[in-house]
Design goal:
This protein is mostly beta strands and 115 residues long. It has strands at 3-7, 10-12, 18-25, 33-39, 46-51, 58-59, 67-72, 77-82, 91-99, 102-105, 109-113.
Length: 115
Amino acid sequence: QVQLVESGGGLVQPGGSLRLSCTASGISSSRYLMAWYRQVPGEQRELVAALPAGSSPNYADSVKGRFTISRDNAKNTVYLQMNSLKPEDTAVYYCNFQYIRNTYWGQGTQVTVSS
């Protein structure tokens, strides 16, 4: 069975930082695309950052220069370092692993940016 477990969400002040982690079990993830999405109630889930296997990261325009996605294939883990956080970054963040016909989602972790 495949399971993705997220951690690192929480409440942070504007301008602060958080680091999200997502670790998969039940797969060897070296060939997977790893990504982070976020969703606000009433809105569509949007792609925040993606890191294809052996390739360069892609970022939503709204987070470029502030967020960094990275991966550790040996640990089956993807990270999202979030700096200079803004209130508009408030959302539930979901990790995603995808390879060919297989796609897996984390349970979601709440990130709230508020003073």
